[in-house]
Amino acid sequence: MITDVQLPEPKTPLPGATVNSDQGLLMWISSVDHKQIGIMYMIMTLFYLFVGGLLALLMRVQLMMPENTFLAPDSYNQLFTMHGTTMIFFVLTPAILGMAVYMVPLQIGANEMAFPRLNAFAFWISFFGGLLLYFSFLAGGAPDAGWFSYAPLNQTQYSASPGIDYYCIGLLLSGIGTVSTAANLAVTIITLRTPSMKYKYLPVFVWMVFINAFLILAAFPSLNAALAMLLIDRQLDGHFFNTDAGGSALLWQHLFWLFGHPEVYIVVLPPFGVLSEVFQVYSRKPIFGYPFVVGSGIAISLLAFGVWVHHMFATGMGNTVNSFFAVSSMLIGIPTGVKIFNWLGTMYGGSIRFTTGMLFATAFLVEFTIGGLSGISFAIVPIDWQLTDTYYVVAHLHYVFLGGSLFGLFAGFFYWFPKISGRMYSETLGKWFFWLFMIGFNMTFFMQHILGIIGMPRRVYTYPNLAGYSLLNLISSLGAFLMGGSMLIFLYLLYDAIKRGKRAGDNPWDGYTFEWLTSSPPALKNFTILPPVYSFRPVHDLNHPEIGDYQKSDEEKYGTKDTD
Amino acid sequence: MEKFSQLPYFLSPASGQADRIASLTTYFIIAALFVLAVVIGLLIYVSVRFRAKPGDGEPKQFTGNKVVEGFMIGVPTLLVAVFMYLTIDTMANVMPAPAGNQRPDVVITGHRYWWEASYPGTKAIVANEIHLPVGRKLLVHINAADVIHDWWVPQLGAKMDAIPGRTNYVWTTIQKPGVYEGACSEFCGAQHAWMRIKVVAQPEAEFRKWVAQKEQDATTQLSASAQAGAAFFSHQPCGSCHRIRGTAANGNVGPDLTHFGSRKIMLAGLLENNPENLRKWLTEPQHVKPGALMPRFGYPKDSITVLVDYLTALK
Ligand code: HEM
Ligand SMILES: [Cu+2]
């Protein structure tokens, strides 16, 4: 039986302690509490999800029929650039940071982040980066060269409006925030774990965030450097990427994708962690293959830096270079793909509750598999030579980002909602939202695989009326509206839960990790006492002493021998 | 419902290279559908079989199974190994390095927002409607004049980026005569959507005849109105961007117009080439193709009429 308890950081005063709720908005603005900052991240994310979604709907209206004239080409190009940029940098990236900032201290039994003020700084600088990016609409035109903004199209002689300057500065600011938070999370996990929580007892979500922090620290500097160089080109007549003056167009692609490919994993590893928590608790079983799930996360993060050229197979780098990156890209598919079976294994033999969170998690398994398989098709270089830069890519990237990352984040959102808000949400509304969103999503993007295969390039503001084009595009646009409509249900669900939701209690799902020991929502000081940790699901051990993991050998706990 | 069986592209490759890629794609799709079916099948099975029922206690807590994990890693690794082999083999076949000094059969240059083709060893230079001979392994060089574009004719094989300051190549061995459609596949600015490609594949003899015809300078047999158009053209800035071989016009910002009258399409696929469309374009270019690099000159109606007569006469 678990007896002895530990006190988390007994002597350190909390930096957030001066904050209190009668300060209203000032409380939020001045807060350095990791939970409040996490919530602000999530609100910002949700806001930009709506903005980015609105831009997408406008695009889909334009593409609903061939040779439509709803939008001018210029406006369309600004919209898709802002849509992609928003979704990557101001939805998915802050969403994973927000969840991590909120949950990591709770899951490791800490009361704060290692650097609470840096935490607040990072949020606000990202926030202002986003505002600045959107200010470009008022300042003479939004960026219009795509979210990866290829050289030399990103040079002043080809894109004269100041949009791309705002792109550089906006992303640099938010990039500074992202890197700071990554460092902060890594240090927090290293230094503030409750003393008995060894690395092998870290919850899977914490592991993924930990790995991810290093991925961010290695990847973002490449982007930040490229953006600074681009700014020099545009403002000071530099010649890094200006081909008319002897610069290199491919240099930009190398720098960008050296960041850009790891970024894809940056926004998917934490959702992998979230899903691992969700599958465990709703199946009432520990994760299948814990050492594998963690180890493959590490493998992915290392391999992620060896695959960037797979975005450049059609640039004529030669068969030798292409073969190397084809092989590394296929290899990274293995640890990623195998995780799907880890989660299926977690469900196997369980006692599964299909809450809204679990529905998103199970749907993720299918959508992410589709996205992963179409991803492998790009590693097969000759297929890439046909399909890159077509709608097949658009389908692929949405299956990964939306069907993967975003579904994972939704699963986590519903899982943790009772903890964060203290209220239960309506499962009926949740299920309506889930089904409409999921059907809309597949309607929108499945068709686009076919559009790409039959020859429709991406980033076109219109298309000729060739066989199949109009029908498939119409279905796709209708699906987008279904998805957009379902988001309104989501908003109503939030409103309903906060207004009328039942009190959640501390641990409504019978969860396994430390956040479920706190009150819902957690008090400013998360923990006063903590039980010692003997496995990666300490609260399960506490609540189910008769089958608790602490009684087991490592062999039984992890399915493998493990000494430490 | 349109006839999907008639969708060209992948489903009916027309070159040896596209053919190889299409069969690799078919193998991949089969493998992918198999994996997807396994995942969906397992998911449905566990979801139905292990759904919580009222009164269930905690299920048996187990955390792994060596045999299952072995399969989980082994089967994907095997699949990946097979596809690695096929990938490298197909690459070598589709994109072998050309001999260093091999003269290309055609040089394609991407411009905002149109395509230029020249045929080394001949004087022929054409825009947008590109003729190629069938039955011969052609070396195609690909360049760009301004930003990155991408040459893609799905039925003819691999796409390839056109990058300023760099010469790329693709091979194509066209198997049957026909008209093959393609499009610029790398975002290049406002009118990326209307940078389409039309390749006309012909038997060798017909192709030679076509080249010989394109080598000619512009016709000088013009009606009175067309002559007036020619005079007008030569006094306006048109020639600083367009070329009409045999006249002083020698620009290269816009498409070559030497044989404009014999083209079926204009504006890289946006419109059919007829006098009415041409008139529209010359009157309001920024309405017809907003963002295209041709300014509106605001010429009077009758000047436009003689210009149209001149350009359509350029067969
Ligand atoms: C209602 C939902 C959505 C719709 C209808 C939609 C639609 C589109 C469309 C039409 C494009 C332009 C494709 C092209 O021509 O290249 C696009 C691009 C993109 N979308 Fe979405 N999208 C949606 C949601 C999302 C979400 C949730 C994300 C990520 C979280 C996302 C990420 C992207 C990215 C990164 C691009 C590439 C932009 C670029 O090419 O620069 N989208 N989307
Ligand atoms: Cu182009």
**CATH class of the largest domain in chain B, please?**
Mainly Beta
Q: Name every ligand kind in the structure.
A: protoporphyrin IX containing FE, copper (II) ion
Output the helix-strand order of chain A: HHHHHHHHHHHHHHHHH
Could you tell me the strand content of chain A as a percent range?
under 5%
**N-C termini distance of chain A:** 22 Å
Shape, principal axes of CA atoms of chain A: globular
Instruction: Assign the structural class of chain B, choosing from mainly alpha, mainly beta, alpha/beta, alpha+beta, or little secondary structure.
Output: alpha+beta
**Major sheet size, sense and barrel closure of chain A:** none
Question: What would you give as the CATH superfamily of chain A?
Answer: Cytochrome c oxidase-like, subunit I domain
Written overview of the protein:
The complex is a heterodimer of chains A (564) and B (315). By secondary structure, chain A is mainly alpha-helical. Chain A has a single domain, classed as Cytochrome c oxidase-like, subunit I domain (Cytochrome C Oxidase, Chain A), CATH 1.20.210.10. Chain A has 17 helices and no strands. Chain A has helices at residues 25-30, 34-62, 73-107, 116-135, 163-191, 204-236, 249-266, 269-283, 290-303, 319-347, 356-379, 381-387, 391-421, 427-453, 469-500, 538-543, 554-558. In chain A, helix 8 crosses helix 13 and helix 9 (290-303) packs antiparallel against helix 10. The relative contact order of chain A is 0.11. The mean pLDDT of chain A is 91. Chain B has 315 residues and is of the alpha+beta class. Chain B folds into two domains: 9-37 and 68-203, Immunoglobulin-like (Sandwich), CATH 2.60.40; 224-313, Sandwich (Immunoglobulin-like), CATH 2.60.40. Helices cover 37% and strands 18% of the residues of chain B. Chain B has helices at 16-49, 66-94, 204-215, 224-235, 238-241, 275-283, 285-288, 301-313; strands at 106-111, 114-118, 125-127, 129-133, 137-144, 149-151, 160-162, 168-173, 178-183, 196-202, 265-266, 271-272. In chain B, strands 3-2-1-5-8 form a five-stranded mixed β-sheet. In chain B, strands 4-10-9 form a three-stranded mixed β-sheet. In chain B, strand 2 (114-118) and strand 3 (125-127) form a beta hairpin. In chain B, helix 4 (224-235) crosses helix 8 (301-313). The relative contact order of chain B is 0.12. Residues 1-6 of chain B have low confidence and may be disordered. Classes of the chains: A mainly alpha (564), B alpha+beta (315). At the A-B interface, helix 3, helix 10, helix 11, helix 12 and helix 17 of A face helix 1, helix 2 and strand 9 of B. The complex binds protoporphyrin IX containing FE and copper (II) ion (CU). Copper (II) ion is lined by residues 110, 113, 149, 184, 188, 192, 195 of chain B. Copper (II) ion binds next to loops of chain B. Chain A: Keywords: Cell membrane, Copper, Electron transport, Heme, Iron, Membrane, Metal-binding, Oxidoreductase, Respiratory chain, Translocase, Transmembrane, Transmembrane helix, Transport. Chain A: Pathway: Energy metabolism; oxidative phosphorylation. Chain A: Its EC number is 7.1.1.9.
